[in-house]
Amino acid sequence: MEYLVRAGWTPDGKHVWAKVLDRKQSHEQLLLLPFCSFVSSDPAKEIYTNHVENNPAAQVIYEEVSEVWINVTDVLYFFTQENPNEITFLWASEETGFRHLYIVTVELLMASERKVNNKGAKLAEVSKRIKKKIALTSGEWEVSESDVWVNEKKRLVYFIGLKDSPLERHLYVVDTENLHEPLRLTASGFSHSVAMNDDCTLFVTIQSSVGQPHFGQVYQICYSPNNPFTVQALGYFIEPSALPSSYRQPELFSHRLQSGHLIYGMLFKPPNMRVGEKYPTVLTIYGGPEVQLVTNSYKGMRYLRQYLLSSEGYVVVSIDCRGSRHRGVAFESHIKSRMVCFYLCII
């Protein structure tokens, strides 16, 4: 392994966890390091030469291998440890071709087993210790790479996903014991940026669409036996504002390629555009990993160049072609090892 990409403390403070990647970024491991395996950085303190031999080694509790690359996420939540020989955590994986949430329970190695295993674990050996793995979400859509909240008492997991549309981010909730389709909690027709309090009773959302500037609301989540997911709006902290009558919002469109893939685009029209008349056109494409240009969100200062060109009589077209994010592994990895050929025939 070459890269340390994420690290933190387990809730009980007894371990440090770490996500590591190999140089090809196609093999990811989740490590658990006992607190007692660390030594002081103070040079005045004595460090015994046999420290490593006398303390438990790190252990691999989960790992993944991809044929293309690993998209590292911030999704990792350790549940309260009820059995000292097991550890349960929330994990995000693209193993099905789309990023989804899983609850994984892994059997921990004893100290003596860790000493034997400290030179690296094989994938088969790690998988044998997985006692339970539950898929919370599934389907041809993606869960966000970072925004996840857990209410252990009520066995609920809240997350941001693109289930309704790859153009809109929404807040969803799923019950970890009575698995059903995730329930959307935010208003459709907008893309949302959400933050939630620690006990998962309040959330705020800043939402917008191509025709509506950003506005913010506070919501309360009310729990009851009959309807545990009642959402009540408490008020605005950013009031909605109207756009000037001269504003020309971009138009969202979709197009199916000869390959069968559906791509999305955004059209900025010049003022008083007449059907049937030719206009100079500017095409904006990135088509690389971790980037999505076309969304149902307000296009403000970051799209000033597109607005400026359209006001000068140009038609501006933005397209999320194969290679862009939030469309699954196959769609995003289309550019792997063939970027030159891909960009020559990009759509």
TrEMBL record:
One of its GO terms (molecular function) is dipeptidyl-peptidase activity. SUPFAM superfamilies: alpha/beta-Hydrolases, DPP6 N-terminal domain-like. One of its GO terms (biological process) is proteolysis. It comes from the Eukaryota. Transmembrane segments: none annotated. This is Dipeptidylpeptidase IV N-terminal domain-containing protein. InterPro entries: AB_hydrolase_fold, Peptidase_S9B_N, Serine_Prot_S9B/DPPIV. Residues 2-213 form the Dipeptidylpeptidase IV N-terminal domain.
